[in-house]
């Protein structure tokens, strides 16, 4: 079984809004999937179901073989350790050093609260430095995280996510807060590392050009439904456009 994500008939409503309206989606090991669609189409809600931050009203969500409609407590925490997250707002602890922020990625495995770098096992510290080296920031290890630029902070967040040794990576608009040049750099890094490590990635993106440049499959959402699911290399531009542009209303009582 190499399905990393298996979603079927997922429905999630918030009041009158159907954030997910019968979503079906299967993602295989090693796939790099871009989730695109207009604001409010349900991208974040879908991603939140993949690590149990949201619960389906109905339908099934299986991630890494775990049923997320029913997982609770220890089972849910164990699953979350296997799923790495990259957020739009980086979520670093600004007053801590870059290295300490990366080390917090190991917390899921090692739930002890720790104060100061020396209290971390040597092997963890060495791994953290290695991940920082991979994102090109080993020389910043002892700097405060809030002294870095946005692009650098997101690279630290990627190193922290690697510290977790994830099997699935979820990224919700990971470069939406960055200028175009930093956005391209961060995407390059994220996807190059995920390819090298054969990680499976589901990444929501507003910038279509970035989605096309770095991912292998594009899933388009609209009003909580999957309306497009194609390999990036064979993407139908007209169908992609229709993900964003409302369909013309069907004329009633035609005759004019
Ligand atoms: N916690 C919530 N409470 C109420 N409504 C919500 C909640 N989460 C999402 N929604 C609604 O569900 C719909 C889908 O929202 P979602 O955030 O998933 O869209 P999105 O595609 O991520 O949009 P964006 O591109 O703006 O990030 C929206 O109408 C949103 O207002
Ligand atoms: Mg969103």
From TrEMBL:
It holds the Pfam family ABC_tran. Keywords: ATP-binding, Cell membrane, Hydrolase, Membrane, Nucleotide-binding, Translocase, Transport. Its EC number is 3.6.3.28. One of its GO terms (cellular component) is membrane. InterPro entries: AAA+_ATPase, ABC_transporter-like_ATP-bd, ABC_transporter-like_CS, ABC_transpr_PhnC, MetN_ABC_transporter-like, P-loop_NTPase. The keyword NAD does not apply. Residues 5-248 form the ABC transporter domain. GO terms for molecular function: ABC-type phosphonate transporter activity; ATP binding; ATP hydrolysis activity. It comes from the Bacteria. Coiled coil: none annotated. PANTHER family: AMINO ACID IMPORT ATP-BINDING PROTEIN, PHOSPHONATES IMPORT ATP-BINDING PROTEIN PHNC. This is Phosphonate ABC transporter ATP-binding protein. It comes from Spongiactinospora rosea.
